[in-house]
Amino acid sequence: MPQTPIAETEHFWYRLQPEGRYIDSQRDNRAFARTEDEVMLSEDNGATWPYRLAFPDARHVTFSCLLGNGNVIFATRERLYRSADNLRTCDEITVQGLDGAPYLPHTPKNPDHPGWYFHTLAGVNTFDVQGKEMLVWGNYCNVVGGATPVNIYYSADGGETVKLAYGFGQSPYTHDDGSPCGGTEGPALGNPDNPVCCRHMHTVAYNPAEDAFYACTGDHDKPEGYEVHWLRGTYDAAADRWDWRVIVSDATNSRYKAGGINFVDGQLYWISDSNVRQPFDRGVFTCRPEDLTDKSKHTLLFNPEVESGNMIIEDGVFLATHCAPASPLACGLIVSLDGGQTWAQHDLKELGPRSGTRLHAMNSDGWFRMDLRVGWIDYGEVLFLKPKR
Q: Among the four 46, 61, 132, 250, which has the fewest Cβ within 10 Å?
């Protein structure tokens, strides 16, 4: 399939993935894609697709990840799969719950809205933890697809098993009432023993300097309390046990309503999608991890003055995206090519109102990959971007 034309700005080249094949994730020279009825794997950055598997539910794929050992993990709305043989076959994974028992999706009130159990906003979900790769991610849910419990998942064995690392509580606002977002009626979902509730996960990231994970949630201020939380978690590999602590909770218009968490040389970076009511405390922030709760020790690197919930940092390049429904730009991108010293914003207006999500690290040809969502969450196109350095 031919590539679409390459366009450029002062700071990067960019191109769309042609219609007909949705490249859902990439890693080094490998890429995973879906069509309406099959999934496929490339080993040359999408030039050819020698590995294909008929998969009738492919149009409902909401998550995928290419692991270092060659395994492919992907999910539909409420089902999780693994292929260990380059998509010759795939097996469904049954998640293990916090008690070690099978963690099964609930029976939805509306079969068309079973919940987005595994969908995530982050494109980077694997981390080198003490010399061993771990897959850790949280689900962005309760926006479309049906009411869903909010969890952090992990695999410490190359995708052979997937377990719950953390289960959030039963929010009174995301019961399964059969609607796309959930409501106050119907069965409660989530961990009944956990008082910490949220609407969904924004991102999970790992700091090697601390050997600790950080997670951020959204979204609203409720009479029962805030839904915006930052958690810090540590993993004991010998015991296969997690210790998670909420380290800050704050309002939806604060800098802590965030995404795009990154660590560079032990320093914490994030971008805020503060919204709902003014004053908005927004921008790209940095601090030492131990200073996260002390705003006086944060440095504001850049303020795009718009909601921005996705950011990736790689080799000194900062790449972030606007939330299109709240932006004066159609398809707004934020970039710094010099480690956050200087910044620029670009509007790829010919692409229409789009929000970039799931920013993947550069492939072996130097291209970032991202979803372009219609509005904020509905799938649109795939954009590839290559910084000019």
A: 132
- Other C-beta atoms closer than 10 Å to the C-beta of 288 total 13
User: Among residues of the chain, what percentage have pLDDT more than 70?
Assistant: 99
- Give the closest residue to 274 by CA, choosing from 220, 230, 222: 220
Contact of 155 with 163, CB cutoff 8 Å: yes
Q: Cα(152)–Cα(17) distance, rounded to whole angstroms? A: 30
**Residue type, position 139, single letter:** N
Which residues, other chains included, contact 239 with Cβ-Cβ below 8 Å and sequence gap of 6+?
Answer: none
CA 132 to chain centre: 21
Cα separation of 143 and 200, whole Å? Answer: 9
Please give the full DSSP string across 325-338, using - where no structure is assigned: GG-SSSSEEEEESS
Cis peptide before 279 (omega within 30 of 0): yes
pLDDT at 13 over 80: yes
Q: In the beta sheet, which residues pair with residue 153?
A: 137, 164
Torsions phi, psi for 133 (to 5 deg): -75, 135
Query: Are 170 and 193 a contacting pair, CB within 8 Å?
Result: no
Q: Which of 381, 387, 385 is closest to 17 using CA atoms? A: 381
Residue 24 amino acid letter: D
Question: Domains, the chain, ranges and CATH?
Answer: 7-387 (2.130.10.10)
CA distance 143 to 201: 11
CA angle centred on 207, ends 215 and 118, rounded to 5°: 40
Q: Which residues contact 135 (CB under 8 A, 6 or more apart)?
A: 65, 67, 73, 125, 126, 153, 154, 155, 159, 162
- Measured CA to CA, the distance from residue 242 to residue 257 in angstroms comes to 24
Angle 162-356-324 (CA atoms, 0-180°, nearest 5)? 130
How far is Cα 136 from Cα 125, in angstroms, rounded to an integer?
6
pLDDT at 376 over 90: no
* Residue tagged 């890429």 (tokens): 31
Q: Residue 248 above 80 pLDDT?
A: yes
CB 117 within 8 A of CB 150: no
Token pair 């940092």 is found at 313
User: Residue 370: how many CB atoms within 10 A of its CB?
Assistant: 24
Q: Provide the pLDDT confidence category of residue 2 given band limits of 50, 70 and 90.
A: low
The 3-state DSSP class for residue 37 equals coil
Answer yes or no: are the C-beta atoms of 40 and 23 closer than 8 Å: no
**Do 249 and 142 contact (CB within 8 A), yes or no?**
no
